[in-house]
Design a protein that fits this description.
Family: Belongs to the universal ribosomal protein uL29 family.
Shape: elongated
Strand content: under 5%
CATH class: Mainly Alpha
Pfam families: Ribosomal_L29
Oligomer: single chain
Distance between the termini: 27 Å
Number of domains: 1
GO molecular function: structural constituent of ribosome
InterPro entries: Ribosomal_uL29, Ribosomal_uL29_sf
Mean pLDDT: 95
Keywords: Ribonucleoprotein, Ribosomal protein
Structural class: mainly alpha
Number of helices: 3
């Protein structure tokens, strides 16, 4: 997901998406510890996507004030 797509989401959708991605990341990390993933770089990409979404959410909070 690109930053432009993240900016198009509403705040509620963004919060829901962050929660869903965090659950998916947790599941990936657990699965990877048990047996290696086909693409372990996916963990890094998911972590970065969550950071981008949290950054956008924080930016919205700061712009409201």
């Amino acid at each position: 997901m690109k930053i432009a797509e993240i900016r198009e989401l509403s705040t509620k959708e963004l919060v829901e998406r962050i929660e869903a991605e965090a659950v998916a990341l947790n599941r990936m990390e657990i699965n990877h510890s048990i047996s290696p993933l086909d693409n372990p770089a996916q963990i890094k990409l998911t972590r970065r996507m969550i950071a981008r979404m949290k950054g956008e959410l924080r930016q919205r909070e700061l712009n409201k004030q």
